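Support request, priority: normal
Reporter: lab tech (M.K.)
Component: structure prediction queue

Hi team, I submitted a job for Putative CtpA-like serine protease from Kolteria novifilia yesterday, and the status page still shows it as pending. I've pasted the exact input below so you can check whether something in the sequence is tripping the parser. The sequence length should be 544 residues. Please let me know if I need to resubmit or if it's stuck on your end.
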Amino acid sequence: MRFTLRLGWTLVLCVAAFLPTTARAQATSSLTAPHVKLDELLKRATSYESRHLWQQAADVYERAIRFYPDETSLRSRWRKAEQLYSLSRRYHDISYREELLTLGRERSLDLYREILSKVKSHYVDEVDLGDLVELGYTNLRVALAQPIFVEANFREGQRDNAKRLIEEFSRKRPLNIHSLDDAVAEVRAVSDRCRMWGMNRPVSVVMEFVSAASEGLDPYSAHLTPNRLRDLYAMIDGNFVGLGIEVKGCDEGLRIVSVLADSPAEEAGLKDGDTILVVDDERLAGRSAEEAANFLQGPKGSRVRLSVRDGAGQRRDLLVARREVIVHSVTNITMLDRQSGVGYVRLVSFQKLTATELDKAIADLRQSGMRSLVLDLRGNPGGLLDVAVSVANRFIDRGTLVTTRGRAWGQSWSHRARPGKTWDFPLVILIDGDSASASEILAGAIKDHQRGTIVGTRSYGKGSVQSIFPLRTVPTGLRLTTARFYSPQGEAFEQVGVDPDRIVYRDNDQLGDQIPVPREPTLTADAQLRAAHSLLAGSLSASR
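Reply from support: The job had stalled in the queue. We restarted it manually and it finished. Here are the results:
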């Protein structure tokens, strides 16, 4: 499996897609929705909610917000689905159950204190401690209404007490929170109250407040469990142990969004769009995405048996061995048109070696006769801030590339181009609604400096920087929004994005479903790529 995670405190990140549903509901879109009926979307979301498929429900609400941004009720529904998805994900995370829920209460309170301290000192905006505690109460009430939480934390015969606690914690009461000590004392008292009503693990109460103190701030901040922190470090290095697939929950199991090149999955014959139905005799239908995905995980060298159905409805069984997978951030390096000298590169993320990989790709293309380039950022969720700046500097030799502003030391900075060797060939950048964060830094710099032409649809609109703090209390991490970033001309990206110079929709762009970027660049099947090629081929012809 692959999770698109990126790292930083010294390594600051600009990432949108940390989760299968990644806060897209924060972004609005310029698309109209003539073919998307709101009642149909709501019906679909309600169906998912009735089956506790929170990720899928959140996805549908995200699409509804994209096409109906003025329907204010959609955001609260989306937020509730995200809360429930987060709860489900935590309780299906082995490291959460075995390493965090086994902490003593006092140690978990120490963790809560450490997170509150980090939020107070480093979050991009000033935060009131009382508000953070109130967010914890909200998280706890949501959890107390869910079977996955109640069955794990209440003794048999006392599970009805969860309803009494919801009523008790729903009553308005004054919170007198002025210090970290006050906040910790309040949560200690809440856990005592829950224990009196039959909760067998008071630490689980504290952990709901821990989660709320980060996730309640914005869609990008989060407390990272040991497993998620390990995944993050692996991904920033561009490698992990697994099958080499990106998956998304669906009614029947897990839909394969992407098969990584040179991976066990590719070698076994798995394809984009295949649906995984059974894993080692475990049927996935009706399971949440995170529960189903757990069956795919395992140690290096272990094997997993999959029952898979392809897009044509043909079913087959496969045996796949898990091993280390190298994730390349620069892919699909090819000449679109040798006669006109138009090259193509897809940038799937901004990770440690991206700039080096791009240098090699450009050198190879130039040897093949490239005189202009299509740089495809569609579907790119972001990555490392300094890497985005480094890539932009390869195209722009002077001036500001991006500015960041935050409260803490080191978070406000103007990143300027350094003189040196830059590429001066004609450039078109492709973007779409899933081009986010670091992708927007690059596209925004290219646009403001008029270094190239931006083609496609409006980008995601994520204008904040997250930092990763490894925590001392327990081996977990805090992903926290610590700054916002702005284009060279001072324009904000948040909920605005980058508008293309030339708007070109892809087929079925208006249907309200996410459309994956074509695995291979094909002019005949990709309207945006055709437009980019036409611009470059035409400009080169005119210059002859």
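Residues 1-11, 16-34 have pLDDT under 50 and may be disordered. The radius of gyration is 24 Å. Let us know if anything else looks off. Ticket resolved.
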